[in-house]
Amino acid sequence: MALDHFAVVGAGAWGTALANAAARAGRSVTLIARDESVAAALRQSRQNPHLPGARIDERVAIAGTIAEATLVDAVLLAVPAQSSREAAIVLAGAIRPGTPVIACAKGIERGTRRFMTEVIAASASGAVPAILSGPSFATDVARGLPTAVTLAARERRTAEALARALGSATFRPYHTVDVRGVEIGGAAKNVLAIAAGIVAGRGLGASAAAALTTRGFAELMRFGKVFGARSETLTGLSGLGDLILTCSSAQSRNFSLGRAIGRGETPAVMTGDKLAEGAFTASVLVDMAMERDVDLPIAAAVAAVLDGKLSVDGAIEALLTRPLKGE
Fold first, then answer.
1. One of 189, 225, 274, 325 is an active-site residue; which one?
2. 189 carries an active-site annotation
């Protein structure tokens, strides 16, 4: 499988970082901004305003239309989860049949309750869906700091080939065929990171933060197993690894949103490049869990707070007064 030319659709912080990573791996890369005025500005400055201090690699070509993806060997779809369907539909008319399209968003589509590879499969029937996720901040990846992620596709040969094509000394994709496990880890950890941020914003202490992360991981495991994820995936980079990162750093948009809520602020749901994906995923995750009788008290509390059905103090009290039980 020849994978020499990659297109990255979405020129936000994450898309720009992935374009740099692919260029460092020796690939020919086209970063697609989906807006010619944005593309022109990026070409001129070689600097994404959302990534201060990290220049766009000179080997990265910058385009303003998805039509530029016509002859590429693979696509990194780096747009927000709730915008992935729209981008994939446009992409379907540009790519050749059999082209791998790698979802790089961490979420579940509202309304349809579909995971990102399912959205790609439904919107671009000629594509080969894959997913990339793991503990990775855009600023680290853009600057070439060491990062490890998980890349999943249903066919092992495809997953291995994509991982080899994108891998470098500082960007290490581990491959798997457990697509669902990788998708669940990325989606669920965003919701739990909001909870961790609320704990930090309320000043509840390091012990509470550790308890929250641990019990949150138990929820992620329960949900994942019911939906067919492998345990080794959930305990790996795209599950536990990503959860640890996003539940402990203000660099996480979801953690930052939760912290603001915990401090008593009333921030609007972040949009554009500052999107907190967990704000859109929380209620979907909880609804899917309820249908399968999976208990997610922390995620449910986050969803209730975000939907205005429960105050932060009410959510904390509800969690702390749950019946004591065996671990």
1. 189
2. yes
Residue 151's region, left for phi above 0, alpha for psi from -120 to 50, else beta, is: beta
Helices (H) and strands (E) in the chain, counts: 14, 10
Contact 9, 87 (CB under 8 A): yes
Q: Which helix (H) or strand (E) holds 153?
A: strand 147-153
Token duo for residue 286: 């909880």
* Cα 73 to Cα 3, 29, 100, 201, distances in angstroms: 5, 10, 7, 45
Write out pLDDT tens, residues 77-134.
999 999 999 999 999 999 999 999 999 999 999 999 999 999 999 999 999 999 999 9
Q: Of 125, 117, 47, 107, nearest to 242 (Cα)?
A: 107
Residue 176's Cβ-count burial label (10 Å; 0-12, 13-18, 19+) is buried
| DSSP letters for 61-83 | EEESSGGGGTT-SEEEE-S-GGG
